[in-house]
Design a protein that fits this description.
Layout: H1 17-24, E1 27-28, H2 40-43, E2 47-51, H3 53-61, E3 66-69, E4 72-73, H4 80-96, E5 100-105, H5 106-111, H6 118-135, E6 142-146, H7 152-161, H8 166-173, H9 181-195, E7 207-213, H10 217-229, E8 236-240, H11 267-275, H12 285-291, H13 299-308, H14 311-322, H15 328-354, H16 357-360
Parallel strand pairs: 3-5, 3-7, 4-5, 5-6, 7-8
Antiparallel strand pairs: 1-2, 2-8
Helix pairs in contact: 6-15, 7-9, 9-10, 11-15, 13-15
This protein binds iron/sulfur cluster.
Length: 363
Amino acid sequence: MGKRVDPFDVGEEKIDYNKLIKDFGTESISKVKNLPKGISAFEKDLVFSHRDFDKFMDAVKKGKKVAILTGANASGSLHFGHKLTFDSVIEMQKKYKIPVYIPISDDESYVFDKVKNQKDGLKNARLIAAQMIALGFDMKLTKMFIHQQYTDIYNFAIKLSKKTTNSTIKAIYGFNDSRNAGEFFYPIIQSADILCPQLDVFGGKKHVMVPIGIDQDPHVRLSRDLAHKLDLIKPATYHMKFLSSLQGGGKMSKSKEGSAISLSDDPSKAKKAIMKAFSGGRDNVEEQRKKGGQPEKCVVYEYLEKFFEDKKEIKKRFEKCTKGKLLCGECKKDLAKFTEKYLKTFQAKVKKAEKNVDKYLIK
Ligand code: SF4
């Protein structure tokens, strides 16, 4: 099997979101007039593109039947990149009382060689389930399942499989014939996940929204095509901007050491990675004091803005930085302190949630 290339690994360059909108044939979020108010992902400009999100918000505001579908593959612990998307879903759920569906794809991790065996996939999936609970989803309004355990999803996938062809999968995903058969079937399971909130067992036809990174958009394209064939409502989506690698440039990647902070990282390990993070600082203190730093290029600033500081606090930091009144070591210490505190509290919640996982999983 050939080496997979990550089109978003752009090295030191910044990601060109306008180009992604053109390449994927989506719409800019800036054109949506009915964006939800008070949701930090939109307030902080973390979403750049969408498909039918305006129609979804219209349905929400008119009190029609709606749901949000999110999820994760079980290759390991969730990380801060995932947290960004899930936080936006939790805020939407809380504000509009929207039911949320969370499938956890241990089968994807297995067929795409991200885990050694199915047992490890299941173990990771159960950790992720506990992490989802700890993140703060309203579990009364949330349906969560692990593919290995909720096998009804495969019955639906079989039905969907007759509505598409291998050539469609090849065209959407760029697969060639050397892929294993599971990789060809897996997109159908993803579509089954995305469309399952519209099954009779879950209350029938409704507007479903799937917030994702744009690299996952092929799944939404396929499920929209299948929805049309099954007379279901085409799912909507919004695309989150990527979280930068701590080392700078390009998006963070779990496979690169020091690039990402996992939600199960030892807080002291996270601190070490942050203290080595890429900043927008100048070559020396003298120059920094004279010219000021470059927060627009700074990963430390990006993490503080996205996760820990409100508009007022981050504006103050921006001004101090650009006026040369702040040194990078101070920001790194602040980010390390916030992250350590967050991880300690979060991991204590996960430990507690692990005891209740079975209570919340559909089987
Ligand atoms: Fe970034 Fe802070 Fe350095 Fe400015 S002072 S470049 S915000 S780390």
